[in-house]
Write a structure and sequence with these properties.
- This protein has four helices and eight strands.
- By secondary structure, it is of the alpha+beta class.
- The chain has one domain.
- The strands form two sheets. Strands 2-5-6-7-1-8 form a six-stranded antiparallel sheet, sandwiched between helices.
- Strand 5 and strand 6 form a beta hairpin.
- The longest helix is centred in the C-terminal third of the chain and has 12 residues.
- The two termini are 25 Å apart.
C-alpha cells in the first residue's frame, strides 16, 4: 500500500433514490460523518440559489431535481476500509456511488461487493479521481 493514496470504486445506478443511498451508507460505512458543512445549489457557486445544511436535505432535493449535479462525501469514523463513501449525482438524472479504500487493497473484492449490493454491472476503479459527470461518459470510461 502507498500511504495516503486511495483506490476509488464507483458503480452507476440508474436512479436517485434516497433510500438506496441510506442503505448503501448503512451497509458500508454505518459510522460516518459528512465531510461538508453545507451544500450549495448549484455546486461551487459564488451565488447559490439554495444552501442545504445536511446531506439528507441535498439527497432529497437531488432525488426530485434530476438535472442537479452534485457530490457528497462521508468519512468512515472507524478509520478502516472503506475510508470514505461518496455519491455523485450526474447531470443526466442518475447517480454514481463510490467507496475509497486503501490503495490497491482488495480492490476486486470491494468492487464485487458494491456491484452486487447495487445490482449494477456499470462499475470501475479509479485512483484519486472522481467519476465523469454523466452516465454516458461513465459507460465510455468503463469500456476502455
Amino acid at each position: 500500500m502507498v500511504d495516503g493514496f486511495f483506490s476509488d470504486i464507483y458503480v452507476l445506478v440508474e436512479h436517485r433514490k434516497v433510500d438506496v443511498v441510506n442503505e448503501f451508507l448503512e451497509c458500508f460505512v454505518p459510522d460516518n460523518q459528512e465531510l461538508a458543512d453545507e451544500y450549495e445549489i448549484p455546486q461551487y457557486s459564488d451565488n447559490p440559489e439554495i444552501i442545504f445544511r445536511k446531506a439528507t436535505e441535498l439527497m432529497h432535493y437531488c432525488e426530485t431535481n434530476v438535472e442537479a449535479a452534485h457530490s457528497i462525501y462521508w468519512f468512515n469514523n472507524q478509520r478502516e476500509d472503506p475510508r470514505n463513501a461518496m455519491v455523485f449525482y450526474t447531470n443526466d438524472g442518475k447517480m454514481i456511488l463510490g467507496l475509497s479504500i486503501a490503495y490497491k487493497s482488495q480492490e476486486r473484492e470491494w468492487l464485487t461487493k458494491l456491484k452486487q449490493f447495487l445490482q449494477s454491472e456499470h462499475a470501475c476503479i479509479l485512483y484519486e479521481s472522481p467519476p465523469p459527470e454523466n452516465s454516458a461518459d461513465f459507460k465510455k470510461l468503463i469500456q476502455k
